Amino acid sequence: MSKSHVASQASEPTPAQFKELFSQIQQGRVTKERLQTFLRGQEPAFPSNLVTVDHGRSVEQLVKDGRYDYSSSDITGRHFPSSGKGKVKVEIFLANFDTRISSEAILQEADKLSLRRPTVKEGLALGAQYPDLQREGPITILCEPWRNPSGDLDVPCLYRNGSDRNLDLGW
């Protein structure tokens, strides 16, 4: 694991910091938009993570990629169809609220910020590429929901149970 030189107390950037910045740009961890937000001195509304989504992989394969201790057998491509081609990098924003808030309110807030719903594959890529993120708190993937046989709407949720990482359905 390489050590990051970006967070330094120096008043002027060091060559090592520039090298780290350019490395993160090449890796796709720093996008043009994120860099511009930083340069303007703006804070993003929500924390975000960059993920690579491989649309050539099925939903079932992406669930396996996550190596969950438990995963619902209902998280399938049949229940959560997904389109897209190739590999793409996507920035996923994690909305964290201090109080309970409805899914509709979250989607309205995202719309105000010109953010769209994630796809199921984007959410599964997040779980696989950032496995410890769900240990910090549950993550609801607000993709297009699946109506289960009982008539309820479900979306995938990443959460922990003790030290286990789980992928289940909820709303």
What is the topology?
Blueprint: H1 15-27, H2 32-39, E1 48-54, H3 59-65, E2 70-71, E3 87-93, H4 103-112, H5 120-129, H6 133-136, E4 139-140, E5 146-147, E6 153-161, E7 164-170
- State the end-to-end CA separation: 37 Å
Low-confidence stretches: 1-10
Number of helices: 6
The helix-and-strand class reads alpha+beta
Mean pLDDT: 82
Largest sheet: 5 strands, mixed
Annotation, overall tally of beta strands: 7
Radius of gyration, whole Å: 18 Å
> Element order, helices and strands?
HHEHEEHHHEEEE
From the spread of the alpha carbons, the general shape counts as globular
How much beta, percentage-wise? 15-25%
Structure description:
This protein has six helices and seven strands, in the order H-H-E-H-E-E-H-H-H-E-E-E-E. It is α+β, with helices and mostly antiparallel strands. The strands form two sheets. Strands 2, 4, 5, 6 and 7 form a five-stranded mixed β-sheet that branches. Strand 6 and strand 7 form a beta hairpin. Helix 3 runs parallel beside helix 5. It is globular. The relative contact order is 0.15. The N terminus is likely disordered.
What characteristics describe this protein?
alpha+beta, two-stranded antiparallel sheet, 7 strands, 30% helix, globular, disordered N terminus
Summarize the structure.
The chain has 171 residues and is an alpha+beta fold. The protein has six helices and seven strands. The chain has helices at residues 15-27, 32-39, 59-65, 103-112, 120-129, 133-136, and strands at residues 48-54, 70-71, 87-93, 139-140, 146-147, 153-161, 164-170.
